[in-house]
Amino acid sequence: MYMVVPASAQRDTLYLAQSEFGDSLSCDYLAQGIFLIWWDNRNDLSQEAAVLLDSMAVYRGTCLNSLNFQDPPNPQNSFYFNVYLHESGDVFPEAWGCGVGTDSYGYPYMTLPIGILNDWITISHESFHVFQYSSDAPGFSQNDCFWYIEGSASWFAAITYPEDENTFVEAESLVRVPHIPMWLGYDNFPSYYPENWQRYVHQYAMALFLFYLTEVNGVPDSLICGGFYNAESPQELLPQEYLYAGLGAVEMRNCFIDWAAHMTNDFDFILPSQRAMAEVHWNTYADPNDDNEFTKIFDDSSFGECFRPADSVATTAWSFNTYKVPGANIDLYTFHLLGDVAGSLGDPAYFQGKILVKNSLFGGRFYDLDMQNDTAGSLTIEVTAADTAIYFIVASMPEIFAGVDQVFQYIINIEKGGTSVGSSVEQPEILHLERSTPNPFSATTTIKYGIPATGPVRLTVYDLQGRLIITLLNEELPAGYHETEWDGRDASGMYLPGGVYFSRLESSGQVTHGMMTILR
Hints:
Elements: E1 2-3, E2 16-17, E3 27-32, E4 35-40, H1 46-66, H2 73-76, E5 81-86, E6 99-102, E7 108-113, H3 120-132, H4 146-160, H5 173-176, H6 197-200, H7 202-205, H8 207-216, H9 221-225, H10 239-247, H11 249-264, H12 272-285, E8 296-297, E9 306-307, E10 319-326, E11 331-339, E12 351-359, E13 363-368, E14 370-371, E15 376-383, E16 387-396, E17 410-416, E18 432-433, E19 445-451, E20 455-462, E21 468-477, E22 480-486, E23 499-507, E24 510-518
Parallel strand pairs: 4-5, 5-7, 8-10
Antiparallel strand pairs: 1-2, 3-4, 6-7, 9-17, 10-16, 11-15, 11-17, 12-13, 12-16, 14-15, 18-19, 19-22, 20-21, 20-23, 23-24
């Protein structure tokens, strides 16, 4: 140990130098504030070190004064925090990269490759880790929490350098593997997951959600950072649970699905240069065989059919799926969502749906599904000639904040067409069911449908288990538009309990489905 004279008069105090890796014979050094920077004396890095010290002093001021963080244990015990600038072949360990570690004295230190000295996104990210180091929140030290350590450090870099094109280079992974839990990280990475770039960088990419909270929705920075230090009352919640409690269930869920929708809308809340750089990184590093951007792309043959995704791509907790309807034209589209009431491990489910309509003139329009309960909802929208594509986003947001294995399944149905009975159109081109009205209903509902050709028509109702409830119609009908009423009773005349039921229409070798909800 020995005293080091700081490079600037702007210092807190004089600290002791204690280094496992640096010494005054083989290294040069520079100190300011709590930081002591070392480098191999065969290099001259004094100017770079001075700039780095000035910047790290600013980061420290923000962390301590605005975010209520604490200094690492080194200066708390009168020692400098060591920073090592290294390259291959110098006096420092050859295996070093970029990050914060712990030395043999039990104190943290930072390593920065010399070539990264102009990468302020990385430097600010790693500097944030320095002030996370003494975090005392038990809830922030479990396997399902470590995404937040990296995500919040990248968030800090993003709000510090909001115009840097490299701020969100991992962002594309969020829409290409949207079905994985928001808290996926190195420490809970399942053995059955593909070991690729897009899944490993997910924990860093989640900075974009924190950025959306603070910079778009106005959530205070203090909420993002407030869970790390809780000396008066230890914070037992996981970070995702902490955000849920701090924001409230409604706001947290609305922010999550809105964030998903705006990412689907070409990441419309970040700079075009940042969006472009995220695309470059995806094209350079991603595994194209693990691209799940769209769970299904619909065409005319897909409308009216109930679709249930495979478990491997269906939503987990706090994740989403995206469905695309390209080449939209003037018509009515009805979107139905029916989620399973519980996940694959038995926990209660919660879903919300959102529609994005892209328009060649005005950008994107957003619509929320009318949710009848925690798992079922529907919405009908009118699409114009200037609308180029429709996206149906299904978000799973249960009150579950741990585990990466549980799947939350659902069924969707997208109906195209809404021509009413008595329309001037004499004959439909394809078999279709309109949305029954009213829906939900308690007394009766009217099911309207179009038959493309004269012939046998069968209209039936099934429950969620696929059991036939009642046959409403089984006869020959002329081509055109028709309607049938249903009073919510089964074939024996008994009134059915409240819940969701499927209608099934068969004619001309075609089949289509709809959903109806009974309220009791």
